[in-house]
Amino acid sequence: MPTVALAITDGMLHFELSLAIEVFGADLTHIVDPWYHFSLCGPDAVRVDRFTLEPDHGLDHLARADTVIVPGWADTDQDPPAELVDAVRAAHDAGARVASLCTGAFVLAAAGLLDGRRATTHWAHTRELARRHPEVTVDPDVLYVDNGRVLTSAGKAAAMDLCLHLVRLDHGSSIANKIARRLVVPPHRDGGQAQFIATPVPEPGNRPLADLFPWVLGRLGEPLTVEDLARQARMSSRHLGRHFRQVTGTTPLQWLHIQRIRHAQELLETTDDTVDTIATATGMGTATTLRRHFARTVGVAPDTYRRTFRSRPRPGPGT
Predict the structure, then answer these.
(1) pLDDT at position 130, please?
(2) What is the pTM for the complete model shown?
(3) Distance from C-alpha of 119 to C-alpha of 125, rounded to nearest angstrom
(4) In DSSP terms, which residues pair with 30 in a beta bridge?
(5) 149: closest CA among 100, 110, 190?
(6) What is the pLDDT of residue 202?
(7) 69-73, 272-276, 312-316: range with lowest mean pLDDT
(8) Are 23 and 12 spatial neighbours (Cβ–Cβ below 8 Å)?
(9) What is the 3-state secondary structure (H, E, C) of the chain?
(10) Which pLDDT score is estimated for 196?
(11) Residue 130 · residue 138 · CB < 8 Å
């Protein structure tokens, strides 16, 4: 059973901390068994905003975990506690995968884990992180950065993106999607900190696109056009484009393209279908077209993606 330890000390942000507890600390064995063995690690009782947390173990227990999560650090003008920095460094040295949420990147940077690496944090603090730690390559435009055993996320909701990414690495896309649906969040978002939602969840009520999204997702293998979507939504193509931009931050065709790629990812992982068959099922037409668009969007070829997520190898030491 993989173990996840959440590092907690006074002065952390409760939102990111709560996200990590909800993803890794909830009993989700009805979705996949075994799930994670989760623990809170900190010095005595910890005050987080208006909440008091009782840790299960001391900070030294971080070194026994497979994955260590460091939530956001509230006051970035102050150095994080030395005992926290030392414990996070020791956990990494012991082989743990270490991930920071939001301004938790300042803790990882103080521990030297980001030296020579690319990293991110909340956009409002990227300049300060770069100023205080010039040896870190700070990227202000991404949701999260995966360096293998060291990962960082941007602010707030991007912490959930990184948590789901970790689940995806450990358990695969299908399980990560189920967890995302349980939490009523998109399973994957593309782009930077001002990016669009890949699989939007429409708000309750009379939002014009609420019925269109499931209709499209059920017909990804068909040669859909903007006119087809507009006709189904009972509005003009121009009107549809405006609504799509408001809801997803992108165009109908760009959104449709991402849905085809996400569906291809799930089929690559959960079936033995050939790339040709998957190309047809996702509306890409041919294997050549799928391979070109898949590599451009995901960053790897379909066959490489399948091998990676079928075996789900853990990163080795030093990566």
Answers:
(1) 94
(2) 0.63
(3) 12
(4) none
(5) 100
(6) 42
(7) 312-316
(8) no
(9) CCEEEEECCCCECHHHHHHHHHHHHCCCCCCCCCCCEEEEECCCCEEECCEEECCCECHHHHHHCCEEEECCECCCCCCCCHHHHHHHHHHHHCCCEEEECHHHHHHHHHCCCCCCCEECCCHHHHHHHHHHCCCCEECCCCCEEECCCEEEECCCHHHHHHHHHHHHHHHCHHHHHHHHHHHCCCCCEECCCCCEECCCCCCCCCCCCCCHHHHHHCCCCCCCCHHHHHHHHCCCHHHHHHHHHHHHCCCHHHHHHHHHHHHHHHHHHHCCCCHHHHHHHCCCCCHHHHHHHHHHHHCCCHHHHHHHHHHCCCCCCCC
(10) 26
(11) yes
Amino acid at 110: A
Cα–Cα distance, 208 to 296 (Å, whole number): 31
